[in-house]
Amino acid sequence: MRRIVLFLHVSLDGFVAGPNGEMDWIHVDDEIFEYAGRETDKADTALYGRVTYEMMEAYWPNAGAQPNASKHDIQHSSWYNGVEKIVVSRTIKNTPAKNVNIVSDNVPDAINQFKQRDGNNIVIFGSPSIGRLLTQHKLIDEYWLFINPVILGKGIPLFPEMRERLKLTLLAHNVFYSGVVALQYGNEL
Protein backbone atom coordinates (compact mmCIF):
# COMPACT_ATOMS: atom_id res chain seq x y z
CA MET A 1 0.00 0.00 0.00
CA ARG A 2 1.19 3.51 -0.80
CA ARG A 3 2.00 5.94 1.99
CA ILE A 4 0.56 9.45 2.18
CA VAL A 5 3.07 11.99 3.49
CA LEU A 6 1.95 15.49 4.54
CA PHE A 7 4.48 18.37 4.34
CA LEU A 8 3.48 21.53 6.20
CA HIS A 9 5.24 24.63 7.43
CA VAL A 10 3.93 25.74 10.81
CA SER A 11 4.62 28.66 13.13
CA LEU A 12 5.85 28.05 16.66
CA ASP A 13 2.33 28.78 17.91
CA GLY A 14 0.69 26.25 15.57
CA PHE A 15 -0.51 28.24 12.56
CA VAL A 16 -0.05 27.20 8.92
CA ALA A 17 -0.90 30.65 7.54
CA GLY A 18 -1.66 34.13 8.75
CA PRO A 19 -5.27 35.33 9.25
CA ASN A 20 -5.61 36.16 5.53
CA GLY A 21 -3.67 33.15 4.29
CA GLU A 22 -0.29 34.92 4.42
CA MET A 23 2.72 32.65 4.07
CA ASP A 24 5.44 35.31 3.90
CA TRP A 25 6.81 34.09 7.25
CA ILE A 26 7.75 30.65 5.89
CA HIS A 27 11.48 30.12 5.49
CA VAL A 28 12.74 27.87 2.70
CA ASP A 29 16.25 27.52 1.36
CA ASP A 30 18.45 25.00 -0.43
CA GLU A 31 19.12 23.09 2.79
CA ILE A 32 15.38 22.57 3.41
CA PHE A 33 14.68 21.82 -0.25
CA GLU A 34 17.36 19.12 -0.30
CA TYR A 35 16.09 17.57 2.94
CA ALA A 36 12.46 17.45 1.74
CA GLY A 37 13.55 16.40 -1.74
CA ARG A 38 14.69 13.03 -0.42
CA GLU A 39 11.08 12.20 0.38
CA THR A 40 9.70 13.86 -2.72
CA ASP A 41 11.93 11.62 -4.84
CA LYS A 42 10.12 8.60 -3.34
CA ALA A 43 6.73 9.89 -4.52
CA ASP A 44 5.03 9.57 -7.87
CA THR A 45 1.84 11.41 -6.92
CA ALA A 46 1.13 14.85 -5.47
CA LEU A 47 -2.13 15.63 -3.68
CA TYR A 48 -3.36 19.23 -3.48
CA GLY A 49 -6.36 21.25 -2.48
CA ARG A 50 -7.58 23.69 -5.11
CA VAL A 51 -5.81 26.77 -3.72
CA THR A 52 -2.43 25.05 -3.41
CA TYR A 53 -2.81 23.36 -6.80
CA GLU A 54 -3.50 26.70 -8.49
CA MET A 55 -0.39 28.20 -6.84
CA MET A 56 1.73 25.22 -7.90
CA GLU A 57 0.34 25.11 -11.43
CA ALA A 58 1.06 28.82 -11.89
CA TYR A 59 4.75 28.34 -11.12
CA TRP A 60 6.17 24.82 -11.41
CA PRO A 61 5.41 23.68 -14.99
CA ASN A 62 7.89 26.21 -16.42
CA ALA A 63 10.06 27.06 -13.41
CA GLY A 64 12.94 24.82 -14.47
CA ALA A 65 13.15 26.37 -17.93
CA GLN A 66 13.64 29.95 -16.70
CA PRO A 67 17.07 31.53 -17.34
CA ASN A 68 17.62 32.15 -13.61
CA ALA A 69 16.26 28.77 -12.46
CA SER A 70 17.88 27.41 -9.31
CA LYS A 71 18.93 23.79 -8.91
CA HIS A 72 15.76 23.24 -6.87
CA ASP A 73 13.59 24.93 -9.53
CA ILE A 74 15.00 22.62 -12.20
CA GLN A 75 14.66 19.45 -10.12
CA HIS A 76 11.23 20.16 -8.66
CA SER A 77 9.83 21.41 -11.97
CA SER A 78 10.91 18.18 -13.63
CA TRP A 79 9.38 16.15 -10.79
CA TYR A 80 6.16 18.19 -10.82
CA ASN A 81 5.72 17.78 -14.57
CA GLY A 82 6.20 14.02 -14.38
CA VAL A 83 4.03 13.04 -11.43
CA GLU A 84 0.34 12.27 -11.25
CA LYS A 85 -1.63 14.98 -9.46
CA ILE A 86 -4.78 14.60 -7.39
CA VAL A 87 -6.69 17.83 -6.86
CA VAL A 88 -9.50 18.03 -4.32
CA SER A 89 -11.93 20.69 -5.51
CA ARG A 90 -15.63 21.30 -5.82
CA THR A 91 -15.10 24.14 -8.31
CA ILE A 92 -12.54 22.74 -10.77
CA LYS A 93 -14.31 20.31 -13.07
CA ASN A 94 -11.53 19.68 -15.58
CA THR A 95 -8.15 21.04 -16.54
CA PRO A 96 -5.98 21.08 -19.66
CA ALA A 97 -3.01 20.01 -17.52
CA LYS A 98 -1.88 16.42 -18.01
CA ASN A 99 -1.80 13.73 -15.30
CA VAL A 100 -4.43 15.51 -13.16
CA ASN A 101 -7.30 13.75 -11.40
CA ILE A 102 -10.04 15.93 -9.90
CA VAL A 103 -11.77 14.62 -6.76
CA SER A 104 -14.89 16.50 -5.70
CA ASP A 105 -17.09 13.98 -3.89
CA ASN A 106 -16.53 11.33 -1.22
CA VAL A 107 -13.00 12.65 -0.77
CA PRO A 108 -11.77 10.21 1.93
CA ASP A 109 -13.01 7.19 -0.04
CA ALA A 110 -11.55 8.50 -3.30
CA ILE A 111 -8.16 9.21 -1.70
CA ASN A 112 -8.16 5.79 -0.05
CA GLN A 113 -8.68 4.24 -3.50
CA PHE A 114 -5.60 6.12 -4.80
CA LYS A 115 -3.71 4.91 -1.73
CA GLN A 116 -4.60 1.29 -2.50
CA ARG A 117 -3.25 1.45 -6.07
CA ASP A 118 0.20 0.22 -6.99
CA GLY A 119 2.78 2.94 -7.02
CA ASN A 120 5.06 5.03 -4.88
CA ASN A 121 4.20 7.49 -2.13
CA ILE A 122 1.66 10.29 -2.35
CA VAL A 123 2.84 13.66 -1.02
CA ILE A 124 0.76 16.61 0.12
CA PHE A 125 2.48 20.00 0.05
CA GLY A 126 0.56 22.51 2.13
CA SER A 127 -3.18 22.09 1.62
CA PRO A 128 -3.93 22.19 5.36
CA SER A 129 -7.67 21.61 4.91
CA ILE A 130 -6.95 18.40 2.98
CA GLY A 131 -4.42 17.40 5.62
CA ARG A 132 -7.00 17.90 8.37
CA LEU A 133 -9.69 15.96 6.49
CA LEU A 134 -7.39 13.03 5.77
CA THR A 135 -6.09 13.09 9.35
CA GLN A 136 -9.65 12.73 10.64
CA HIS A 137 -10.05 9.67 8.40
CA LYS A 138 -6.67 8.24 9.43
CA LEU A 139 -5.29 8.32 5.88
CA ILE A 140 -2.03 10.23 6.59
CA ASP A 141 0.93 7.93 7.26
CA GLU A 142 3.60 10.55 7.97
CA TYR A 143 3.61 14.19 8.99
CA TRP A 144 6.64 16.31 8.07
CA LEU A 145 6.24 19.52 10.03
CA PHE A 146 8.67 22.36 9.42
CA ILE A 147 8.49 24.52 12.54
CA ASN A 148 9.44 28.08 11.63
CA PRO A 149 10.94 30.32 14.35
CA VAL A 150 8.07 32.81 14.35
CA ILE A 151 5.03 33.41 16.53
CA LEU A 152 2.09 34.70 14.47
CA GLY A 153 -0.39 35.23 17.30
CA LYS A 154 -3.34 34.48 15.04
CA GLY A 155 -4.02 32.79 11.75
CA ILE A 156 -5.16 29.48 10.29
CA PRO A 157 -4.45 26.75 12.87
CA LEU A 158 -2.79 23.48 11.96
CA PHE A 159 -5.39 21.20 13.54
CA PRO A 160 -8.52 23.04 14.68
CA GLU A 161 -11.38 21.04 16.09
CA MET A 162 -9.75 17.62 16.14
CA ARG A 163 -12.39 15.12 17.20
CA GLU A 164 -10.08 12.63 18.84
CA ARG A 165 -6.53 12.23 20.02
CA LEU A 166 -4.00 10.96 17.50
CA LYS A 167 -0.82 9.30 18.77
CA LEU A 168 2.27 9.89 16.62
CA THR A 169 5.80 8.52 16.76
CA LEU A 170 8.82 10.70 16.11
CA LEU A 171 10.74 9.12 13.21
CA ALA A 172 13.35 11.80 12.58
CA HIS A 173 14.19 15.41 13.26
CA ASN A 174 16.52 17.96 11.82
CA VAL A 175 17.56 21.47 12.84
CA PHE A 176 18.44 23.72 9.93
CA TYR A 177 20.92 26.58 9.96
CA SER A 178 17.98 29.01 9.50
CA GLY A 179 16.42 27.92 12.81
CA VAL A 180 13.65 25.92 11.15
CA VAL A 181 13.17 22.55 12.83
CA ALA A 182 11.83 19.57 10.83
CA LEU A 183 9.89 16.97 12.75
CA GLN A 184 8.95 13.77 10.96
CA TYR A 185 6.17 11.81 12.67
CA GLY A 186 4.61 8.47 11.82
CA ASN A 187 0.95 7.77 12.48
CA GLU A 188 0.39 4.95 14.98
CA LEU A 189 -2.62 3.22 13.44
Question: Brief description of this entry?
Answer:
With 189 residues, this protein is an alpha/beta fold. Helices cover 30% and strands 30% of the residues.
Per-chain topology:
Elements: E1 4-11, E2 15-17, H1 30-40, E3 43-49, H2 50-63, H3 71-82, E4 84-88, E5 100-103, H4 107-116, E6 121-125, H5 128-136, E7 142-148, E8 156-157, E9 168-175, E10 181-187
Parallel strand pairs: 1-6, 1-7, 3-4, 3-6, 4-5
Antiparallel strand pairs: 2-8, 7-10, 9-10
Helix pairs in contact: 2-3
Explain what this protein looks like in three dimensions.
This protein has 189 residues and is of the alpha/beta class. It has one domain (4-187): 3-Layer(aba) Sandwich (Dihydrofolate Reductase, subunit A). The chain has five helices and ten strands. It has an eight-stranded mixed sheet, sandwiched between helices. Strand 9 (168-175) and strand 10 (181-187) form a beta hairpin. Helix 2 packs across helix 3 (71-82).
Specify the CATH class: Alpha Beta
Give the class from helix and strand content and strand pairing: alpha/beta
Mean pLDDT: 91
* Rg, alpha carbons: 16 Å
What portion of residues belong to β-strands?
Answer: 25-35%
Integer count of domains? 1
Unreliable spans are none
